[in-house]
Design a protein that fits this description.
- With about 325 residues, the protein is α/β, with parallel strands linked by helices.
- It is built from eleven helices and twelve strands.
- The two termini are about 35 Å apart.
Length: about 325
C-alpha cells in the first residue's frame, strides 16, 4: 500500500437507533439520529482525532466503524474492503487488522482472567478459527513480549486485573489490542479515566508504539489538549455530523466553524496573560434533541452567526483551504 493511500474510509455513515413512545397499544416509533452522515478518512500511519462535546456521536461512530453496531447506512472501507457488506466469517478475518482500546480499564478486562489469558485470548480465538497459526509456546512468548513492550514486567502475567492500578490496566488493554498486529487501532477515550500524570505516560506510549509498528489511530477524546498532542488531523463533531476537519496545528491556529471556535475558546491556556485577555464564546440555547429530523444546519439554534439559509439548508463539508474542510455557509453557498 502506498503511504498516501487511505487505510480507512468512512462514507455517509449513519447510525439511527429506534425507540417507541406512548402506551403499549398506541406506540409511536421514532429514531435517535446518533450518527447522521459522517464522512472521514485516515491515511496509513497517521492519527485522526475525533473531538466534540458529550453525546455528539463520537463513540457511536467508532463502534459503527468497528461493526460493534451494524450501521443504518453508509460504507466503512478498511484496506479497500467494505466491512458493512462482509459476512460474519469475512468480518472476523478483517477484524485482525482493526482492534479497540476501550475507555474504562476497570470494565474492559475480565476480572476472572489472568493477564496472560487476557492478552493471549485474541491469538487463541483467531488460531482456533484458522485465521492464525500459533502454538501455545508462541502465544506465551508473544504475551511476555507485549507486556514488556507496554511497560509491564513479564512476571505480572499470572496476576489478575484487580492487582493493578488504572494505568497498568490500560497498558494491559493496549497489549491485548496489539496481540494480532493490527494496522488500525480505535481508541475510545483511552486516557479519560486516568490521573493526569498517568495520561501523559499512556499518550507517549501510544506515540512510541505508532512509530515502532507503523500503527494508524482513530483517537477519541473530549480533552482538547490530549487531542492536540496526539493527533495529526482533527475532525470536530457536533450532533452526529462532522462540522470541520483540519491539520491539528491549523485547527488550533485558525478554527473556522463557529462551534469549533466556541469549543476551543473554552479550553484553558497555560499563560495567565493570554488567558486574562482572551474572550470566551458562550453558547446559548440547548443542544437539539437527537430524535428530531433536521432540515437545516444542526448548529443553527446555538450559532451566533447564523443566517436565514442556515435554517432550511444543511451545509456540506467542503474545502476551505489546503487540507481544511468546514461545513458552514460562512465559507460556501448552499448547492
Amino acid at each position: 500500500m502506498n503511504e498516501s493511500e487511505n487505510l480507512l474510509e468512512v462514507r455517509g455513515l449513519k447510525m439511527h437507533f429506534p425507540f417507541h413512545t406512548g402506551s403499549f397499544l398506541n406506540r409511536k416509533k421514532g429514531y435517535i439520529y446518533a450518527v447522521d452522515g459522517v464522512d472521514l478518512h485516515i491515511k496509513k500511519g497517521e492519527t485522526l482525532g475525533l473531538v466534540g462535546e458529550s453525546g455528539c456521536g463520537k463513540s457511536t461512530t467508532l463502534r459503527a466503524v468497528a461493526q460493534l453496531y451494524k450501521p443504518t447506512a453508509g460504507k466503512v472501507m478498511l484496506k479497500g474492503r467494505d466491512l458493512v457488506q462482509l459476512s460474519q466469517g469475512e468480518l472476523m478475518s478483517a477484524r485482525k487488522d482493526m482492534q479497540i482500546v476501550f475507555q474504562d480499564p476497570y470494565a474492559s478486562l475480565n476480572p476472572r482472567m489472568t493477564t496472560r489469558d487476557i492478552v493471549a485470548e485474541p491469538m487463541r480465538i483467531f488460531t482456533k478459527a484458522g485465521i492464525l497459526s500459533m502454538s501455545k509456546a508462541e502465544i506465551d512468548e508473544r504475551v511476555e513480549q507485549l507486556l514488556e513492550r507496554v511497560g509491564l514486567s513479564r512476571f505480572f502475567k499470572n496476576r489478575y486485573p484487580h492487582e493493578f492500578s488504572g494505568g497498568q490496566r490500560q497498558r494491559i488493554g493496549i497489549a491485548r489490542a496489539l496481540a494480532l498486529k493490527p494496522d488500525l487501532v480505535l481508541c475510545d477515550e483511552p486516557v479519560s479515566a486516568l490521573d493526569v500524570s498517568i495520561q501523559s505516560q499512556i499518550l507517549n506510549l501510544f506515540k512510541d508504539l505508532q512509530d515502532e509498528f507503523g500503527l494508524t489511530y482513530m483517537f477519541i477524546a473530549h480533552d482538547l489538549a490530549v487531542i492536540q498532542y496526539i493527533s495529526n488531523r482533527i475532525a470536530v463533531m457536533y450532533l452526529g455530523v462532522i462540522v470541520e476537519v483540519s491539520e491539528s496545528a491549523e485547527l488550533y491556529k485558525k478554527p473556522l466553524h463557529p462551534y469549533t471556535q466556541a469549543l476551543l475558546s473554552a479550553a484553558p491556556i497555560p499563560d495567565p496573560e493570554v488567558e486574562r485577555k482572551r474572550q470566551r464564546i458562550i453558547l446559548t440555547g440547548d443542544v437539539p434533541s437527537p430524535d428530531k429530523v433536521r432540515t437545516g444546519c444542526p448548529f443553527y439554534d446555538r450559532c451566533q452567526k447564523h443566517m436565514d439559509k442556515c435554517k432550511d439548508h444543511v451545509p456540506l463539508l467542503k474545502d476551505a483551504g489546503p487540507g481544511h474542510q468546514v461545513a458552514c455557509f460562512l465559507y460556501h453557498d448552499p448547492a
